[in-house]
Each structure stands twice: as C-alpha cells, then as structure tokens.
Prior knowledge:
CATH class of the domain at 2-155 and 194-250: Alpha Beta
Strand order of the largest sheet: 4-3-5-6-7
Radius of gyration: 25 Å
CATH topology of the domain at 2-155 and 194-250: Rossmann fold
Structural class: alpha/beta
Distance between the termini: 60 Å
Amino acid sequence: MREKQYGIWQTLSWSGLAQMVAQLACGLHQAGLRRDEHMVVVGANRPRLYATMLAAQSLGAIPIPLYQDAVAAECVFPINNAEVRFAFAEDQEQVDKLLELRDRCPQLSNIYFDDPRGLRKYDAPGLASLDELLGAGKAFAELHSGFFQGEVDKAGPHDEAAMFFTSGTTGNPKGVVHTHNSLLNRAKAGADFDHLTNAEEVLAYLPPAWIGQNIFSYAQWLACGYVVNCPESVATVTIDLKEVGPTYYFAPPRVFEGLLTSVMIRMEDAGTVKRGMFRKFMAVAQKVGPALMNGEPVGLVDRLVYQLGNWMVYGPLRNNLGMSRVRVAYTAGEAIGPDLFTFYRSIGVNLKQLYGSTETAVFVCLQPDNQARADTVGVPIAGVEIKLADNGEILVKSPGLLKGYYKNDAATAEVLTADGWYHTSDAGFIDAQGHLKIIDRVKDVGRIQGGANDGAMFAPKYVENKLKFFPHIKEVVAYGDGRDKVCVMVNIDVDAVGNWAERRNLPYAGYTDLAQKPEVYQLIQECVEKVNADLSRDALLAGSQVSRFLVLHKELDADDGELTRTNKVRRGFIAEKYQPLIDALYGGNSEQYIETTVKFEDGRSGSVSATLKISDAKTFAPVKEAA
Length: 627
C-alpha cells in the first residue's frame, strides 16, 4: 500500500503490513475483543484502517465500516444494533463523534485513534492511540508466539467477515452480513473477468463504508495482491489521481460527470485556436474512438486522423484527468449518460458499466471490453444466474449473496427465497445480446393516471438520470405516479452554471440567487425539452415526458436527510418536506414561496427561503403517432 502524507508517498510492504496486523490483533485480543464480536471503523482510506479491519477479521471478529461524514446521530443505530464495544477512529473529528454518542451507546468501551493531532489532552476512559495498541500487541506476541496464527487457522470460508449498513432510504439501515467466501469469491470472479494481476495500481478515495470501495480496494486487493494508493485528503484526490496514474479505476457517474464538467469549463475559457482544435478532434473521436475500443474495423484515414488527435488532444487530456494508464475503468450505482459514456471511450479510456449491490457483493454483471454500451450493465459473470419475475423484477443467484440482514430475519426472508434467489427490487430485462438492461426500481415504476397519457408507464429514475446527463443539472427528483403528468424539481450544478453565467456577464449572489435567474430557467428548460424529445421516441416511456419543472433554492444534502450517504435521492422524504412545491407544480401555480430548515457544516441549523418560479415545458407527440 501507499499513503500520501505531507505531500510525500509513504510505502508499506506486504510483510510490513502482516507484522502490523499481527500486532494489532494481539493488542485487540488483550484488550478484550472476541470472536463473533463487531468492531466499528470510521475514517478515510488509510493503511492502518485496513490493517485494523484485517486484525479484527484475524481474530474472528467482524468489522463494520461506517461513513466518515455521517453525523453522530447516524452512527447510534449501527453501533447499538451490533452491540459494538470496540471502535477505530481515524482522527480527532471521528473521536469527537464517538465520544458524543457514548451516552446513547454505553457499551462502547474502547476507542482507538490513528492520527493524534488535537488529541493530546483527551483523557476519556477507554480512549487510546493505535500506537499504544501496537505496543501492547507486540509485547503480547513476543510472549505468545503462536497465538496469532492459531486464531487465523480457526477461520472458515463461511464465517462472517464483514457487515455493511445499507443507506436506509426508508427507515433504519439494515446490516448486510457477508462471509469471507462471498466477498473473496466475487472479488476473484471480477478479477478473472478483467484479467487483473498484482501489477495493477488502484486509488482508494471513496468511503470504505461503501461496499463498492471495500470490494475494489480491500477484497480484490487481497485476492489479486495489487497496489492500493491512499490519497492525502479529499481535497487532493484529483492531484493524487494524476500522480498515481491508476491502471484499474472505479468511480460513480457523478465523479466522471465532475471531471468532464471541469474539462469543458476549462475549454470554454481557452483561446479560440485551442477551442477549435478540441472540437474538431473530439468530433473525430466520437466517430472513431468507440469503434476502436470495441475492436471494430476503422478506415485507414480515420485511424490516422485519430492517431493525430491522440497525440495532440486525447493523450494530454487523459493525462490531465489522471487516466493515462487506465486499462479498466468501471462506473456503477446510477445510470451513466450515453454522451458521458461515449466521451470517455472516445478518448481511449476503457470505461465500462457493472451491476451489483451491497447484498450481492457488487459483482453480478460486467461488460466485456468489446461490448461496452451505455444502455446496458453487462452480462452475468462466472457463478451468477439471473431470471425475471412476472412483474419484471430481476432475481439473482450467486456465491456473493449476503448471509442475511443482521437481527432482521423478516427482511432477509423478503429478499432471499428458500431456494437461494435474491430479489434485487430492480426492474429490467435481458436483451438479444445477453446483456442486462435496468429500467428502474420495481416499487418506483408507476403509471400516469388521467390526462392525455392515462395508463402510460412512469419510471422516475429513468427520467431523473436522463436529465442528470446534462452538465448543468446536478440532481433531479421526478413525480408522476398516480398523477396526470410528470413534474420535476431540479438542482443546478453551481460550478457549471456559475461558469456559464460568468461567461455571459450574468451577476449572482450565491446558489439561491443563481437558481432563480430567468436565464437559468431558460437553460434548464432547454435541457428538459431535449429529454422530452428523446422520450417521445421511446414507445414505452413517451408518457413520462416532463410537463412542469422548478429549480430548487438549495442543494439537496445528506445532512438535511434529502440524500442518503451514497447520494441517492430519498424521494418519499423530499415529497413530505417539499409538499407545498409539489402541490404548486400540480396546481398550475407560476411561483411558490418556500422556507426550508438546513444544517450547516459546523452543526448549526438555519433556514433558507425563496419564492420559486415554476415553468411549463414543451412535450412532444410520440413518434409513432406523429408518423
């Protein structure tokens, strides 16, 4: 592993890591951690966080990574639900959080911290540094030389290995229990699919509590033996990405969108010659690049022009993005826009999609190198079976399925059948090429009732994702099930729209002011109507065209309960919180006043108010009818 500290990359060898894990395991045992107990780890990706997880697993204990940006109240349920006594905290911020909730989690007796800055004068009972734990473990290991290996030898492949708490979009989060076999089996299957070796370089920058990060930089790291690089901080990820030059890269669509938006903003500010050259060669790339990536025949002239573009534009661009060495790049979690998907493949980045979830240990479907398409999520990989229920729900059978939900047999029985099929809650189908296509969540697929589109299918996530493909739109919440039309609430991307406004000499005084500018509404209306035109060509979803929209006065935020910690929209919560806005959208209002309570980064609460404009959007007759 590598870790960047104070601008310098520090290296940890496998043997150094093994020694650290053994000492930590001995220290934790001496402190009282026992087999089948749970241990919470809270922090960013760090070698010592990973070593602590391995140490707990070596003792037969079960690590539970929690989101480092979660507030203290969000940690109470997981800690109490799993009866956690031991915790690893990365730094002072995480220690303060755990100490704050001790009165609600009285069993939390031992807290170990990695970074000692700011903690010198803390004297809370049970609080100690990881260095102290290592020292105690080293002394114990010297007296009991065979203890560590003896504990490791007791482990079996079907023992519980880790627990991940779901987002909790409805009610309390559920603890997803995975075994050593379910995690390592899927990690190995994914590695075999893409021919991963110990020569790969990975950047670990997403939250360890998210199973996607845990699989890519922990389970697959152990299965393949490749190098995991931990950036210095969230603020330095982009710089560290360029320095590391990973060969194997994973990011949700939001990250790829952000990188592309930053590129387009810089190009808008570039000189006329550079801007013209960029547009000319990108036109060539979009025509030729995907075909080259898919191994399809390309004419000699096109190939030569593309090579020239690679030298002048695509190569420097990949290098600037930190993707000059990427051999395999994956995205998942949300649908990725076809334009965004095509852009990366056009410039020579082997970007592909995968399908999976916390309950399936991520890897269910992957896209082969020569079959990457924006509208599918790939083919079932080794060990996976897929079938469709009568209502279109996707059912999965795989060695990577969860053992169950912790202390929640009823929820386990809802998703796992007696013969081993997992209910994904996603609606989709297998196309003629054997690729899986996802439409939406089964529970979210609804019907328009009344009006010209009475009875038409409504897939909110599909509509939301099509709008989010535009760089000026960051988030969308769509409503329409059981109503006579579809209406949406939009969050603008303040960086992209701010840059757009500055180039037009359009002054604004923050997000709320910018969001309500007539010019911004016109910009968003153009995006909405482009999506409507596209939907009109889809016989199944032509009735899901957006009739009315508004731009929200604040960004949707996980701290305000509007998003999960994995940035998924909590549509039901938002519907309750912004009921006056939904009533105004469907009531024909042209504007609506709203006042909203918000939570600031320092923990204080306040409010944001505004009178929001509501606009109508042009809809189109279905193409079949128009013809």
